[in-house]
Amino acid sequence: MFFKALLQASLALPLLYTTASAQTACNNSPSLCDKAYNNITHLGAHNSPFLRDSTTSFSTSGNQYYNTRTQLESGVRLLSGQVHKKNNTSGNSAWHMCHSSCDLLDAGTLEEWLSEIKSWMDSNPNDVVTVLLVNSDNASPAELGASFESTGLDKLAYSPPSLSQPPETWPTLQSLISNGTRLMTFVASLTPSAQYPYLMDEFTFIFENDFENETPTAYSCTPNRPSPLTTEQAATSGRMFFMNHFLYSVQLFGIQSPNDTYIGTTNAQTGLGSLGEAITSCTGVYSKPPTFVLVDFFNVGPAIGSVDTANSVSNPTGRRSAPAEVLQETSGVSRQQGSMFAVVVAVVAAISFGM
Ligand SMILES: *[C@@H]1O[C@H](CO)[C@@H](O)[C@H](O)[C@H]1NC(C)=O
Ligand SMILES: *[C@@H]1O[C@H](CO)[C@@H](O)[C@H](O)[C@H]1NC(C)=O
Ligand SMILES: *[C@@H]1O[C@H](CO)[C@@H](O)[C@H](O)[C@H]1NC(C)=O
Ligand SMILES: *[C@@H]1O[C@H](CO)[C@@H](O)[C@H](O)[C@H]1NC(C)=O
Ligand SMILES: *[C@@H]1O[C@H](CO)[C@@H](O)[C@H](O)[C@H]1NC(C)=O
Predict the structure, then answer these.
(1) CA dihedral 104, 108, 110, 116 (to 10 degrees)
(2) Which of 67, 257, 317, 355 has its CA 20 to 30 Å from the CA of residue 50?
(3) pLDDT band per the 50, 70, 90 thresholds, residue 329
(4) Is the Cβ atom of 39 under 6 angstroms away from ligand 1?
(5) In the predicted model, what is the mean pLDDT of the chain?
(6) Domain 30-353 adopts which CATH fold?
(7) What is the rounded distance in angstroms from the CA atom of residue 1 to the CA atom of residue 299?
(8) Shortest CA distance to 192 belongs to which of 144, 152, 238?
């Protein structure tokens, strides 16, 4: 009886994952394998480890409803997060993933977060993943590098030919995969070190538009960082375009938190201040789509829709669809989500018990 239920549960699995030839796809599509790393658009989860879910009591400091692993399973390929130095009561310090301050939202150590990414990458060998660390307390390359080494992520990391200027061409996804260098790591900001050649200073390789947007009419394609860089200079500098696309709402005392009431439009393909329209507009400015787009609550929209359009991907494989709703403490969505995860757990249990 019990096994029969498990068998039924395992038949439900294809509903959660799209099947087909995941082994020949790169980042969910065979059509992306031969494209250069900078010639595709990577969906980014802004503040990936900072969650607005039951684990944080739905903290308003959270930028995502689903954790890093679910983000990766759903097609997110760029993960950003802030690294802070946290002192403990015995006078020691450790590097933690914290939002603005470790008192506000502490998502655990850098090492734990990198382990989560390493574990997903180990079981998904045809995917190229990008990590962007905001270096809030000026960690040195050696301090950051220690966590890459202890988790083994350094072994998967790509090192550019030069740490002081962008390469003329970036490798294709397939060559990164074949070479076993499927992790791109950027740090904002860092004085590069030849001993840690995979830790790339973000603004040497990337330029960003403004991220401080509080109304849906405020988005701009104009370079904001590194400063000063004109649109013309940015376009010819060889840097990749990183498009921030998220909206803040302003609380008392000017404190900013993600605007979750407008997120359905912010992450949509069309509408005032939508991701889809912003990509189209910036594609016009730079004559190519942004290499990265960074969003809050990636599952809403869903944001991946506009990214697939930018990449001309119509049949993504090996991807899970997270529910596209806003997650709220008391909503039915979180309960449904709970039972969906229960099914997955049951199936995994069934597989590991050899049935
Ligand atoms: C990348 O895009 C440029 C045009 O922007 C093109 O000339 C080049 O062939 C492309 N390379 C690859 C490998 O995708
Ligand atoms: C941690 O300790 C160092 C020196 O002991 C101090 O400079 C720093 O401000 C402390 N950081 C926090 C967040 O308390
Ligand atoms: C403080 O940090 C050190 C080094 O990370 C660790 O060994 C120790 O257990 C921590 N102590 C407390 C009280 O958390
Ligand atoms: C792949 O590795 C080889 C040997 O280390 C190196 O010469 C080549 O440049 C690498 N290719 C890419 C795309 O990184
Ligand atoms: C979110 O943005 C929309 C559009 O500007 C605005 O109408 C709404 O009041 C904002 N929500 C919050 C919570 O600030």
Answers:
(1) -130
(2) 317
(3) confident
(4) yes
(5) 89
(6) TIM Barrel (3.20.20)
(7) 36
(8) 144
Instruction: Quote the CA–CA distance of 302 and 239 in Å, as a whole number.
Output: 27
d(CA 130, CA 173): 12
- Atom 14 of ligand 5, nearest CA residue: 249
Q: Which atom of ligand 3 is nearest to the CA of 91?
A: 1
User: To test ligand 4's pocket by mutation, which of 38, 179, 183, 184 has the most ligand atoms within 8 angstroms of CB?
Assistant: 179
Determine the atom of ligand 2 nearest the C-alpha atom of 93: 1
Q: How remote is the CA of residue 318 from the centroid of ligand 1, in Å?
A: 26
C-alpha 238/C-alpha 305 separation (Å) is 27
Task: Spell out the domain ranges in the chain.
Answer: 30-353
DSSP 157: B
Kindly give the number of the ligand 2 atom that is closest to the alpha carbon of 102.
13
Q: State in Å: Cα 144 to ligand 2 middle.
A: 18
Alpha-carbon gap, residue 169 to 272, rounded angstroms: 35
Q: What are the φ and ψ backbone dihedral angles of 87, each rounded to 5 degrees? A: -90, 140
pTM, two decimal places: 0.87
Residues enclosing ligand 2, CB less than 6 A? Answer: 87, 93
Looking up tokens 């039951």, which residue turns up?
54
Determine the average pLDDT of the residues in 220-242: 95
Q: Classify residue 160 by its DSSP letter.
A: -
Q: What is the largest CA-CA distance in the chain?
A: 68
259 CA distance to ligand 5 middle (Å): 6
* Orientation of helix 141-151 relative to helix 110-123, angle to 10°: 40
Phi/psi at 326 (5° precision)? -70, 130
Q: Measuring from atom 2 of ligand 5, which residue has the nearest CA?
A: 262
